[in-house]
Each structure stands twice: as structure tokens, then as C-alpha cells.
Amino acid sequence: MTATWVGVDVGGTKVLAVRIDAAGRVVASATRPMPGLTAAPEAVEDAVALAAGDVYGDAPPLALGVSAAGLVDAAGERFLFGAHLPWRDAPLRRNLAERIGVPVVLDNDAHCAAHAELLAGAARGVRSALLITIGTGIGGAVVLDGRVVRGAHGVAGEFGHMQVVPDGLACECGLRGCWEQYCSGRALERVTRVALGRHLDGPEVTALARAGDRVALHSFASVGTWLGVGAASLVSAFDPEVVVVGGGVSAVGDLLLDPARSALAASLQGTAYRPVPEIVPATSGPRAGAIGAALLARDGRP
Ligand SMILES: [Zn+2]
After folding, report:
1. CA of residue 295 to ligand 1 center, whole Å
2. How far is CA 141 from CA 92, 99, 144, 231, in A?
3. What CA–CA distance (Å, rounded) separates 217 from 273?
4. pLDDT-based confidence at 1, cuts 50/70/90?
5. From ligand 1's centre to the CA of 155, what distance in Å?
6. Distance from the CA of 245 to the center of ligand 1, in angstroms?
7. Could you read off the pLDDT of 98-133 as tens digits, one per residue?
8. pLDDT tens-digit profile of 192-209?
9. What CA–CA distance (Å, rounded) separates 60 from 117?
10. Ligand 1: centre distance to CA 4 (Å)
11. 210-232 as b/e, with b when 16 or more CB fall inside 10 Å?
């Protein structure tokens, strides 16, 4: 029997499973809907088990990794809180291990995505990096000395809720002026709506920007500039070799990243005399969380 590992990414709208071989190649993938924020927590566990079963069939993996959108405790045992998932302080690792019958490894989705970029993506061979994932909100991870930094309580990397504008826009988290209010898919839609007077979703703004539409380009310039401004604070703190940017909003590429590069250089001290880290696109794509979780299942959670 061939050795395989499975990774399952649990997000706000879907549950995505991949099966990898010993070399880390994806050999199968499957998607199930996420039952919803108001569903019973057990229903989401069912969806994880079903998506995993879809990719392994009759040949259980050696271990299963779970990447979840929210706060996971430092031991990788409990899912503490996620704005888009119904679990609250749930012993998720044990529940899933008992249900599925294989060893389970649990981590935050951004930490999993960073693991994938570090082992097989844009940060391969790099010792220190920032990973910034821009989707509906912002996810993130810090890599120092080749390891993802989890922090004292497991919840490091919640960059999206750093305050960048005192008394700024209200955030779903209850605070004001959070970075993700200015740099996210929601921010892209808001800036476009203000300029255009009607609503377009992120993929529509992306298509317009690619076609050279001035309003859409301005929207990406706004979000990209905020990306660079926020990244500058993180670069000042951590001095990474590279800043890796992933998530749906980054699919537009340099239309987002060029304004970010300019803003980063303009927001750091002494740029004529110090290296400014490159801002590069993530390479693992929308499956980064699931692939990272499968790699953690293969390698063990460091
Ligand atoms: Zn917030």
C-alpha cells in the first residue's frame, strides 16, 4: 500500500481536502460545502470526515492534517474561535482522531499555508518570511529561523486586526481601524462601490482591472498601497527576507503588488542604506491551507 497523507482546509464557505504522496504531490482533491456558522459543530466535523473520505476512499492515510480558519491553541488540541466557523473552544483534534480513526494534526489555516509555502512554494529555502493572505479578510504568519512562529498562545499572525487607523472603520471583530478594513476583498469592494455607485464582487473588479478599467485599477492601487503600508510595520518588526502574498485578491498579481512595493519602500526608514524585502506572489494557490495541513500530517507539527 502506498503511503499517503490527507489535509483538510475548513473555511467559511467550503471544506477542501487533498491527498498527497510521500513527495508532497497532490494526488486527489475534493470539496464539500461548509454547513454554515449556525450549524451544529458536529455537522462541520461530519463535513471534514466526508471530504477526507472522498480523497482516501478505502485506503486510510497514515495521518490527517486539519487547517482551520480561526484561533487554534498552542498545543494544536483545541479550536478556540473563528468568526466564520461554529466551533467554540472545541477539543477538535481529539474529536476528529476518534471519529476518523487515524492520527490528526490541527493548526490555524494561515500557519498551514505558510508551511506549504516554506516547504514547496515561494518561501522555499528561506529562513525568515512574512506570509500575508488577502481574501475576505487578512490571514498571516511569521516565519523566523525556518519555523512558523505560533506565539505563546498559538494565535500569532492575526495581522488583519492590527489597528492602522485610530478611530477608523468599524471591523466585524468589534474594534475600529483594523488593517483588513483597508486591505482585503471587502475593502476592494467598498472602494469600488464608493467610486462607481454600485456593487461589484472581487472577481468582477479583478476582471475589470485586467481589462485596464481606471476605477478597478484605482481600487487595486488603494488596497495595494494599504498592503505596503501595513507590511512596512511588519518588516520593521521582523526583518524578513521576503514577503509572500497569497489569497484570492492577490490573483491580480502586479496590479496589486506594484503599489504595495512602492508603499513598502516609502514607509521604511533608511531604504537607501538597507535591503528592502521583495514582495512576491504565493505559489500554492487556493489549496495552500489543505496542502500545508497534509505536509504537517506527514512531517509532524513542529
Ligand atoms: Zn478587526
Report:
1. 30
2. 22, 30, 10, 12
3. 32
4. low
5. 14
6. 20
7. 999 999 999 999 999 999 999 989 999 999 999 999
8. 999 999 999 999 999 999
9. 26
10. 38
11. eeeeeebbebbbbbbbbbbbbbb
